[in-house]
Structures are given as C-alpha cells and as structure tokens.
Amino acid sequence: MADTKTGNRILDALPDSEADRFLALTGRMPLEPHDLLYGPGDRIGKIYFPLEGVISLMTPTDEGTWVETATVGNEGMVGVPVLLGGRSIGNGQAIAQVSGEAITIGADRFRAYVDSDGKLRQILFGYAQALFAQISQSVACNGVHPIQERCARWLLESHDRVSSDAFNLTQEFLADMLAVQRPSVSVAARALQQAGLIRYTRGRIVVLDREGLEAASCGCYRSARAEYERLVPLT
C-alpha cells in the first residue's frame, strides 16, 4: 500500500506490507441509497469495508416495519457474522443509506485471510466489540431520547462518514432509520434548521454548524464514538 491510505479505518490501521497483501485480494464497488447488500436469511457472499457513505443494519418487527440497530461507515466493515464463524445475517438486512464506495472481498477469501497470522484479526475483534457497543447504545437511545436529539445523533454519524458537509437523504429514509413517522422527522429537521445547524431542502442535508449539532445531540453519539476510538485505534 506504500504511503497511500484507503480511507477505511480498519484497513488503514494495518502495517503497509499486510495491507498490500490483503488489498491484492479485494475489489471496489459503488454504494447507492437503498442498495441491499444482505437480505433476511441470505448467505453472506461478500465483506464490505466502506471508504465513504453509510450502511444501515436493520432488524424487522412483528408489525412488518424495520428498525435500524447500527450504522457502518469508514470506521468499520459489514459482514461481522463471517468473522465470528457464521455465514448468514439471520433475519436482518444491510442496506446502503448514503452513497459512497466500499472495498469488497469474497467471504471465503476473507475468512481464510483472517485465519492466517496477521494484525487484521485483532483489529476486527476490537471493531466487533465497538459495533456491539453501538447497537446497545442505539437501543437505549431509541427508547428514551427525544426525536430531535436522535436526529442530530444520526446526522452526526453520517457527517463523520462522508467527505463533504452535504449529502443526500430523504425524509422517508430518515424516518425509517429512526423508526418514527415522517411528520416527526419533519418537525425535528425543521427545529435543527431554524437553529442554524443544518439546511435541509429537497432531500439534501447540509451541515452548517457541526459544534452546534453535537450540542443538540444526546450523549449517545459521544459514547459510541469513544468506543470506536478506544477499540479501533488508528495505529
């Protein structure tokens, strides 16, 4: 990999020689909103290391709706069940939310590489722990915090994973991610916009005041981010 970094936190934490070996086994693919990476019961055929964009991990309810349990971006990877010895995502799904790009590798190649000696396995187990912490934090957040704070948290997480202050996001999609009705998202987004923190027009978000948005969010954003910083170090 020499002096070139991929933009994915996990892969960029590898020694250059190991990163070169791993990247020789991979490809790249674009991510577009609503791209379904895995569906319920699907056998996992690829592992994804996002470089930019946001992927949502979602779980169904008995009422037929889907609830987001975690988001994944350039800090992580999608396909943790394969790391842990499984090959199916169970009854959940992984779907792209915000456009971007990902490095991909076949599940069999990935498993064989992880089983060999190297730093990747160690980093990935730290990432899995951070992901589980994010899922727990998300469950707690969705249960007790107001929609406006949760909306600010979600926008901050997405802002972390794109290379611009602007990204496309419809109210319908954001409502699905937050497990609320669209009118609730409209009220929350309008309040954040009136406070001068974001601009939201025609499905496009522009973050105007990052510090203000952090102040408007609940503490769950900072707690989840701190776990990634602790468990997935940059070097």
Offer a quick outline of the entry:
The chain has 235 residues and is of the alpha+beta class.
Descriptive overview:
It is a single chain. The protein has 235 residues and is an alpha+beta fold. The protein contains ten helices and eight strands. Strands 1, 2, 3, 4 and 5 form a five-stranded antiparallel beta sheet that branches. Helix 6 crosses helix 8 (182-194), helix 6 packs across helix 9 (210-216) and helix 7 packs across helix 8. The longest helix is centred in the middle third of the chain and has 25 residues, at 120-144. The model has no long low-confidence stretch (mean pLDDT 89).
Order of helices and strands: HHEEEEHEHHHEHHEEHH
Helix content: 40-55%
Uncertain segments: none
Number of strands: 8
Average pLDDT figure: 89
List the helices and strands and how they pair.
Layout lengths: L8 H4 L3 H8 L3 E5 L4 E3 L7 E15 L5 E7 L7 H4 L9 E14 H9 L4 H25 L2 H14 L5 E3 L2 H8 L3 H13 L3 E4 L2 E4 L2 H7 L3 H12 L4
Antiparallel strand pairs: 1-5, 2-5, 3-4, 3-5, 6-8, 7-8
Helix pairs in contact: 5-10, 6-8, 6-9, 7-8
